Amino acid sequence: MEGEPLFSIEGEHVLVDAIKRSEDGVYVLLRLHEYAGSRKQVSVKSAYPISSWQECNLMEESQEAWREEELAFQIKPYEIRTFRINMGRAQQ
Questions:
Q1: The whole model's pTM is what?
Q2: Residue-by-residue pLDDT tens, the chain, 92 positions
Q3: Which of 23, 30, 35, 71 sits 20 to 30 Å CA-CA off 43?
Q4: All domains of the chain in start order, with CATH
C-alpha cells in the first residue's frame, strides 16, 4: 500500500478541501465540497482500512452515530461535508 493515496473520491464535481488529523489526534478528518451546483452521489475509497466513520460539523463535533458501512452519501449543490474517519483502530 506504500505510495497509495489515502483517499480516492468517486463522484463528479467534488473537491477535497482538507485531509488532516482530528483535533483530538485520534481520527482522520476529510472535508470536501461540491463545486458545480449539482446534486451528486459520492463514494470515498481508501487503500487503507476504514473501520468506521461519522459526519461532523466544521468544529469537528459529531452530527451522527458511527457507521461501519461504505463511506457513501448524496451531496447537495455547493455543500461542504466533513467526516471523522477511524482508520483501522478500535472505536473509542
A1: 0.89
A2: 677 889 999 999 999 999 999 999 999 999 999 999 999 999 999 989 999 999 999 999 999 999 999 999 999 999 999 999 999 765 54
A3: 23
A4: 8-86 (2.60.40.2220)
Q: By the 8 A CB rule, do 35 and 13 touch?
A: yes
- Alpha-carbon gap, residue 14 to 83, rounded angstroms: 14
Tell me which residue of 40, 34, 39, 47 sits closest to 6, measured CA to CA: 47
Give the chain's end-to-end CA distance (angstroms, integer): 25
* Cβ atoms of residues 71 and 81 within 8 Å: no
